[in-house]
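INFO  loader      accepted 1 record
INFO  loader      residues=284
INFO  predictor   begin
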Amino acid sequence: MKKIISIIILSIQMFMLCACESKPKQSDKLQVYTSFYAMHDFASRIGGEKADVYMLCPPGQEPHDFEPTAQDMAKLSQADIFIYNGMGMEHWAEKVAKTLPETVIIIEASSFVDSDNSDPHVWLNPQYAYDEMSGIADGFIEKDGVNKEYYEKQLSSAKELTDDLYDRLKKACDMFTTDTVIVSHDAYSHLCDLLGITQMPVNGTDNSGEPTPQRIAEIENYIKDNNIKYVFCEPMGTSDIMDAIAKDTGCDILTLDPFEGRTDGEDYIKTMHENIDALTEALN
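INFO  predictor   done
INFO  writer      dumping tokens
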């Protein structure tokens, strides 16, 4: 049954693609579609005033769970560039990319990151965030070479900001007295690797399902045995489980943002500085 539904959906999508291919472009700017919030932020930072940047996954929705509609596919067929993270972050993106016209430049941002770690949340290491933005800039220049210097200048500005973030993170970790963070899902391994600390997640990488009672008991015992003072929740999704763990163990709750789908328009740089503040409070 699922196969039949997939075939029907794909047929609708292809119909919409064909129907829209002859429509004229509405703007002289690059038309850029991104998969979710982090990619939208990076593309907007590089594209600046030269690009109209759109996001497929609505703010506040988990990109792991998102499914593009036929309307989304129709819009993508008219795009200049489609940007997604990859590494399984968006399970739908590779399939979508294969259906797009050859005129659409496809950028899998994580392919520009040199890491053996399979966690898709690579952007939480600022150096890797820059690598993704560098790949995005390459795609913009390929499609719009006339504005090459502009995109290179935008990338240079991003480099200064991500370097500042990296330096602050390294200085912060020199002062840490605790080496484990209790987090709501398995999203922070790249950040933790950079800081030389360990994450203890309640849920897996895609933040789906509910943790077992055994997992919750394991985490609560660890908190009590190691005198952990804080647990971290996230801006998106329910915090009921983290609230219960905090209540059971006497911990306080802080926010650690994986920057997947903010609803307030906050950018990557400010969000990461907020993450550093929270980690510094919890681990000192």
